[in-house]
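Tutorial handout. Part one gives the primary structure; part two gives the three-dimensional structure as tokens.
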Amino acid sequence: YLPVIRDHLPDALEQFDFATPTLVTGDRDVTNVPLQALYLMNGPFVQEQAAALAERLMKEAPDRSQRIRRAFLLCFNREPDAAENTMAADFFAAALRLEPDSPAREKIVLTRFCHALLASGEFRNVD
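Part two.
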């Protein structure tokens, strides 16, 4: 729960259909607008959460394939299908080639992968 200041809503609440605090509202509007996707792609809060998810995956799963599986379970409550596994493997292969060699390279690429999952339409509309 967050305290709500009537004239200043937190960004996430403003983007995702929070009821106007100055009115009595029985039902919330349900929308799917481009600003929501932009917030998930560019918002600093989402970037921090992607880094935290990557850190968690590094601790919980010993190898990349298990990290991908665990990321899907955490984000979508399901395992990736064969096509998604292939796309994830291709993403890691391409991103690791582009990333300079460093000890944090795997974590940087995993963070980008997690950010992509958090910014996806499936995550935004998960039941």
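Part three, for discussion. The first helix runs from residue 11 to 15. DSSP finds seven helices and no strands in the chain.
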